[in-house]
């Protein structure tokens, strides 16, 4: 630690400050320097906001001292987003680390741009076959401390989820009388006091019937899809098959990516499925929002209208989340194609999983309506 000296301004009297004041100033400066050294402050400028996301933290340069957690952070973080991976960790052939989200996003972008995906650090080729998981890094990251979003205390990442769900006294919870309409939510340690004073148990039967009526209406809306599926399973003619979407490029001046399945037979008819990305916008790789839409095409000639219901589900070996949506169309020789309808995936992350794969494997169900 450097010595701190106090130099009096020209023309001023040292007696004006006093020996005690000089000593106190020197001790204050030394104390601040010691505190900075203890907490490991290595950057100049204002302190970061406590709510600043981890990916905005500055990586520690090689050879610079600091807290062990910060040095490990700079070594184990993803080379793309500079954040610590929350799940699987992949590495290129030269050992550079990527979290699952960034790895899948790089593969999806390469599919959209019709380029070979490369590591952002060393530019070597990456793919699901060339890259492998780094289990040692995954275990090391799980032991690094992180803050609970509710109580701000630090816990190992491997135990944080259990703490936030079961143990944290500041975790957000809801009143047990939510089922009869209580909207309260707050810290867990305030729950007993609220439930003792909650007014919903004392409501009249008429008031509760109105609340339960709204809840039943929402429940019936959720059950409508499942009831429709069960009614479709009673149809006489039902067919299903595994379909594989393969990527192709249009022959236009500006090529666009689209997907198409080989011809397949269901219900003694020949069909084809087509899919497109972001409704065939010009540069889908420049957008963070990714969507897929598809259409069903009847290739056979029919003598009369073929009224069908159909839906797409995930394949037996994929982990993509698809919420079933039932579509209806009356197929005939003059109207053998459905409109493009959205593939009901939950978000852009799930869409990137499909785009990153070599082929998209789904399961198609077709129900023929008997007249």
From TrEMBL:
Any Pfam family hit: Sina_RING
InterPro entries tied to this protein: Sina-like_RING, ZFTRAF1, Znf_RING, Znf_RING/FYVE/PHD, Znf_TRAF
Entry keyword set: Cytoplasm, Metal-binding, Zinc, Zinc-finger
Zinc fingers (TRAF-type), renumbered ranges: 144-182
Domain TRAF-type stretches: 144-182
Protein's UniProt keywords contain Zinc: yes
Keyword Membrane: no
Major place of residence: cytoplasm
Residues annotated as domain RING-type: 78-123
CDD domains: CYHR1_C (cd22861), RING-HC_CYHR1 (cd16505)
Subcellular location(s) per record: Cytoplasm
Family recorded in the similarity comment: Belongs to the ZFTRAF1 family.
Protein name according to UniProt: Zinc finger TRAF-type containing 1
Gene: zftraf1
């Amino acid at each position: 630690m450097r010595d701190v000296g106090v130099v009096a301004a020209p023309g001023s009297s040292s007696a004006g400050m006093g020996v005690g004041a000089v000593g106190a100033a020197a001790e204050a400066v030394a104390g601040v320097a010691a505190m900075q050294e203890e907490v490991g402050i290595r950057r100049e400028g204002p302190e970061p906001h406590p709510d600043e996301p981890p990916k905005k933290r500055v990586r520690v340069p090689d050879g610079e001292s600091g807290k062990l957690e910060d040095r490990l952070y700079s070594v184990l973080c993803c080379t793309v987003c500079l954040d610590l991976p929350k799940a699987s960790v992949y590495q290129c052939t030269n050992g550079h680390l990527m979290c699952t989200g960034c790895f899948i996003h790089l593969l999806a972008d390469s599919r959209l741009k019709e380029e070979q995906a490369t590591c952002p650090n060393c530019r070597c080729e990456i793919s699901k076959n060339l890259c492998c998981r780094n289990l040692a890094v995954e275990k090391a990251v799980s032991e690094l401390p992180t803050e609970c979003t509710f109580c701000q205390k630090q816990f190992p990442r491997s135990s944080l989820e259990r703490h936030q769900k079961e143990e944290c006294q500041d975790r957000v919870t809801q009143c047990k009388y939510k089922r009869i309409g209580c909207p309260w939510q707050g810290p867990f340690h305030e729950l007993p006091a609220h439930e003792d004073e909650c007014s919903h148990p004392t409501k009249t039967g008429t008031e509760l019937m109105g609340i339960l009526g709204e809840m039943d209406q929402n429940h019936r809306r959720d059950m409508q899809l499942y009831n429709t599926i069960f009614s479709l399973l009673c149809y006489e003619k039902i067919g299903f098959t595994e379909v594989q979407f393969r990527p192709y490029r249009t022959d236009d001046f500006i090529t666009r990516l689209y997907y198409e399945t080989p011809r397949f037979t269901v219900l003694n008819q020949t069909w084809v499925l087509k899919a497109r990305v972001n409704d065939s916008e010009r540069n889908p790789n420049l957008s963070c929002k990714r969507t897929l839409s598809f259409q069903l095409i009847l290739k056979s000639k029919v003598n009369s209208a073929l009224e069908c219901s159909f839906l797409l589900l995930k394949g037996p070996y994929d982990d993509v989340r698809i919420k079933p949506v039932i579509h209806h169309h009356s197929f005939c020789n003059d109207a053998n194609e459905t409109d493009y309808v959205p593939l009901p995936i939950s978000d852009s992350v799930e869409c990137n999983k499909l785009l990153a794969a070599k082929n998209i494997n789904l399961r198609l169900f077709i129900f023929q309506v008997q007249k």
